[in-house]
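Before a colleague's protein record goes any further, I have to sign it off. Thanks in advance; the entry in question is below:
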Amino acid sequence: MRKIYLVPALVGLLTSVAAGPLAAQQGVVPKQKAAPRAAAAGAAPVAAGAPVAAATEAPTAGADDKTIKAIDGFRSARFGMTEADARAAMVKDFSAKPDAIRAQDNASELTHSLLLSVPELLPNGGTAELSYVFGYKSKSLIQVGAVWSKGTDAAITPEKLFSNANILRAHFMGEGFKPDSIAVNMPVAGGIVMFRGSDAKDRSVILLLQGTFENKENNQRVLTPTSLLLFYVADAKSPDIFKLPPGQF
């Protein structure tokens, strides 16, 4: 059974290129040395097997709190919902049968999750697995994630993962996130952060293409993707998970 984690590396991804991979439903990809950052002119589409060499930060001017997109959750599920309300939202949004929703606990973070497989979450994108995570203390919804991989759809290909990533990145680029929070094509160990953006309350969306890197001619590093992960996070900097109190050990 896949383990659902909040994403410790999200804190770093909100401010800079992270040093490690995101923990994910599919597990953690073995660490690779991060590709060097280079000045980038824009967010060109990435194709399967393409070299990875650029990260792009968006300009910091041009929007205010009234025009910035609010990240309240995913579809009709809203951060702060109880498990019962989130279940009802999943049934409504995806015409899901109640017994198709599976529950899972995380023994280290002491969070609780609801899982649902959804065909065509992204049109022609293959089957994804959704995870709705409830906080350790609040017991309310703090994160919604989606993953596409061979584990969720045996027919999915690296090309399909790249296509899904490009479609979603283009969508998010036009959504009006806080300009100084937006970054695309950020190489990290184990993959590429295709998009990162936050709203005025620092609630965040992160799109991560995970995979393996190979060194090709002229020291170009080429990513072969194995999974695509999308996270909507209420508080990436201080997630509601179990932590040992200071001074106990």
Residues 47-180+191-233 form one domain. The first strand starts at residue 56 and ends at 57. The helical segments are 10-13, 83-94, 158-173. Confidence is low (pLDDT under 50) at residues 8-42, 58-63.
